[in-house]
Amino acid sequence: MKRNFFLLSILNILTPALLFAQNPKVDILEYEFHLDLNDNNDVIKGKALIDFKYTEDSGVLALDFASEENGKGMSVDSILQNGKNLDFKHSEEKLSISTTSEEEIRIYYHGVPKDGLIISENKYGDRTFFGDNWPNRAHLWLPVIDHPSDKAKVSFYVSAPSKYQVVATGTLHEMTNLNEEKTLYVYSSPLNLPTKVMVIGVAEFAVQHLGEIDEIPLSSWVYPENKEAGFYDYEQAEEILSFFTENIAPFPFTKLANVQSTTRYGGMENAGNIFYFENSVDGKRSSEFLLAHEIAHQWFGDSASEIDWSHLWLSEGFATYFTDLYAEHKYGKSKLDEKLQEERRQVIGFSQTTKTAVIDSSRTDLMELLNPNSYQKGAWVLHMLRRKVGDDNFWNAIREYYQKFKFSNATSADLKAEFEAASGDDLDLFFEQWTTQYGQPKLKIDQSFKNGKLKITVRQLQKNQFKFPLELQLNFATKEPKTIEFDITKKKETFEIEVSEKPVSIDLDPNTNLLFEEAL
Questions:
Q1: In sequence order, what E strands does 37-179 have?
Q2: Residue 11 lies in a domain
Q3: Which of 114, 151, 268, 414 sits CB 3.0–4.6 Å from 72 for a disulfide?
Q4: Which domain holds residue 360?
Q5: Exposed (0-12), middle (13-18) or buried (19+): which is 489, by Cβ within 10 Å?
Q6: Of 147, 169, 203, at which residue does a domain stop?
């Protein structure tokens, strides 16, 4: 009975559902944000036009929107629908608007962002404005449903001092000098996006247009002071974009701009305009794999998004492993093995202090999900899937998964279903033990040799039991190494094979195919 109950719990975790959606009563269809920025202070003036529909009867449109407190936050001036003022309540981080109608609403507001839109100086002392919404900080400067399960189209109308250039989500449709001091930029995206990747970037930029990769305009936006180094470093995006486009699907957005910024992260995968940390520019191309990680996110995380934060590995694990695949493509399998071995070390180290699974709904601080379970262990899950089903089935499953869930949301169960369809395998056990169970195998190998027979005992020392294929390389003094493979199904198993001499050593997992820890 305990086993059946455990399996039921696993299925509940994996089953697609909108259980975690922040506001399941409403679906936002489109946002249009008008933002007025200035250099005299950090106050922004905003107008948000929102198209929506109720998914069930309701008289209140509830949005996430941080209210003013201690001089920071947003103050709502008025809300109109069909030219009529609506009643609303704005408190803490919620804006509740009284309306039964589904016609467009207009929210007028102003304030100093607490976060989300970072108004600061870059490393050269120049003033900048950079959106930085992940995970749910968009509502600190925009009235939205701040959850990955609610996707919408978006447009940005940004009025800023004319010395700046503006990059934002979508395609640039208009750039107009309003007067001697202000310029208006209009960007829009016709594609459904989560709020975490809707942003603007406003700074003094040097911009290089690199042409098109499969009809997608590619550009680099860097600080003028390090223009030559930035253009040189970010040019690597051409090869990266080509690799992913050829192997996954056409690029999902209307442009790709790689942007030097003040983001708090190494890189932030905003849809169609990726923001990288300032020192990603060094003139040495040391951020190649960072570029690959963020560009991979354009397909996985931005377009095909996790339905809830607990399935974050569908974003970060994918970006990590597809960076590994790019490294394998460009530098060979030895580079893939090197990266996977380092990622394995990170997973093991994390597991020694934190006993959680890849799918983790226990977190209340979403920043805690930025951990090796979501990134490196998620990558290892994909790598072991690839080894289990084979390269052709792996790529077929990946492409089908992406096609089915692009511009929408997926769960781990959705991914499992695509791999089962591609391979014909039952992957219940695989996903159960690697995504919903804590830890990884901790293995100890004992051997004895007598009369030409080698006896090998494999013991799993961890608490949970795992089932997996294990490769061992037998190293001999006088002949070539020999690789053998066993299916490990028990906590302790003994195998016997015939060999002409006793191995001088045995290497576990010589081809880097298994996430495991070796007991000393």
A1: 44-54, 60-64, 73-81, 84-85, 88-91, 94-98, 105-112, 117-121, 127-131, 152-161, 165-168, 171-177
A2: no
A3: 114
A4: 307-435
A5: exposed
A6: 203
Judged by DSSP in three states, 156 sits in strand
Angle at 9 between CA 4 and CA 11, to 5 degrees: 95
Assess if residue 458 is contained within a domain: yes
CA-to-CA distance for 111 and 140, rounded, in angstroms? 10
Q: What percent of the chain has pLDDT over 70?
A: 96
Domain-located, residue 3: no
Residue 414: exposed, middle, or buried by beta-carbon count in 10 A (0-12, 13-18, 19+)?
buried
H helix intervals, 352-502: 378-389, 391-405, 412-423, 428-435
Q: Give percent of the chain above pLDDT 90.
A: 94
Model confidence band, residue 426 (pLDDT cutoffs 50, 70, 90):
very high
* CATH code: domain of residue 296: 1.10.390.10
Residue from 388, 379, 448, 444 nearest 420 by CA: 388
| Domain identity same for 408 and 449 | no
Residues 107 and 143: beta-carbon distance below 8 Å: yes
Burial of 483: CB neighbours in 10 Å, binned 0-12, 13-18, 19+ = exposed
Residue 7 lies in a domain: no
> Within 10 Å of residue 342's Cβ, how many Cβ atoms?
11
Written as six digits, the tokens of 140 are 């600190």
d(CA 1, CA 4): 5
- Tell me if 74 sits within 8 A of 33, measured CB to CB: no
CB 320 within 8 A of CB 300: no
pLDDT reported for residue 17: 34
Quick one: 458 and 502 in the same domain?
Answer: yes
- What's the CATH number where 485 sits? 2.60.40.1840
Q: Which of 255, 271, 304 corresponds to the end of one domain?
A: 304
Domain with residue 136: its CATH number is 2.60.40.1730
Element (DSSP H or E) covering residue 202: strand 200-203
Residues paired with 300 in a beta bridge = 304
